[in-house]
């Protein structure tokens, strides 16, 4: 991946920018030394790094607005930064730009049990939302694997999901209102505590916009009463394809579990050695399923579920016999990503979503691609909504391995689109997938998206270089062409 050369004129305005920022921010809210900037040189897609010109740490909406006004006045790009847990390079900084961190915007502002909402600043972690309301018998449903660290602002930017998104939806289904700051510093509120909002669905537009349209400073979230009971079950299969078929069968039968997750042999072995979740070793695949709701309903459905699993070919079925047992099963799944360090020096995490009925076919073809490239692929994913997370194992010390892993990842994502799926389920496009966008969208589609971007950010200073493809004459997705030497979107930077 090549990056644009920093704009020298912007670097020359660095001193002027710092002087402007010091009018509204304290000295400890501006990071401008080389060593201190290292922590911000990449997000969780750590293969690509570059240090920002400086970092700002506002602690209220007025200061966020001030930073945006200063950067807008001097034409300085801004990269919003949550917790740095993103996996698509969406928070990768620019050498001639500013990182705006929301780490100090971490207050729970309001808990409204009557309306079942909680209002928080964007730096509050995902898990902290549930911790703030669980004493009242409520919780926040979206639960990404990184929920102990990832921030609500980042969740909103990427439209994060998690284990329980099958039944309760992704972030966009659980956000009721937002306060955001536009590129020019204007503060805008959309939505609120009500379930229905008049006018355009700006909440839907802003959620998942990856920091390209505005920066969130407050979020009003839906909270749910804790279910009466939750029961988990683990089923063992002789193949990953068989586990995938079981998922399709469960959904076809009309069941909507709280969560369904698949792990293959590689991921099982890594996880079991890491956290000791009690997973059986030497098996091809595990399917974890959870049902929640009223005790009588769950008691009936779990029997139905067990019958479906046996019919689908499960060789072993194990029910969680207690709450600690249930939590232990899920602890293994949530530890899958960090556990990969036990079996590979490096891994490349993909994120694509496919129709559930295509799971067996796609898993088979991923296996074929893995053999063709000579790289192992560990499959662990949200099976219920078809959100795949193939983990491509490689060694960055081996020359050419990273490039090969990226090529394999691109082929997997193209496969997802080919079968009727999409390039990303919850990790975003960022820089990782931006040049694959033409595989999914034609020129008119991309034109429309860029016009929306321009409505919010005329100067194009919010997170530039992300999401929208950088055009090259190789037309690598097969959907972009250069005719007569004329390039589409001449305003886009060529990396």
Characterise the protein shown here.
The chain has about 500 residues and is an alpha+beta fold. Among the domains are: about 10-100, 2-Layer Sandwich (Uridine Diphospho-n-acetylenolpyruvylglucosamine Reductase, domain 2), CATH 3.30.43.10; about 110-225, Uridine Diphospho-n-acetylenolpyruvylglucosamine Reductase, domain 3; about 230-340, 2-Layer Sandwich (Alpha-Beta Plaits). The chain contains 16 helices and 20 strands. The protein has helices at about 10, 15-20, 35, 60-75, 125-135, 150-160, 165-170, 200-205, 240-250, 265-275, 295-310, 325-335, 335-340, 360-375, 400-420, 445-455; strands spanning about 30, 55, 80, 100, 110, 115-120, 140, 175-180, 185-190, 215-220, 225, 230-235, 260-265, 285-295, 315-320, 345-350, 350-355, 375-380, 385-390, 390-395. It has a seven-stranded antiparallel beta sheet with strand order 15-12-14-13-18-20-16, with helices on both faces. A five-stranded antiparallel beta sheet has the order 5-6-10-8-9. Strand 5 (about 110) and strand 6 (about 115-120) form a beta hairpin. The chain is globular and about 70 Å long. The chain starts with 7 loop residues before the first helix and ends in a 39-residue tail after the last helix. The model is unreliable at about 470-490 (pLDDT under 50).
**How large, in whole angstroms, is the Cα Rg?**
23 Å
Strand content: 15-25%
Reading off the top of the CATH hierarchy, the class of one domain is best stated as Alpha Beta
Helix percent band = 25-40%
Mean pLDDT: 92
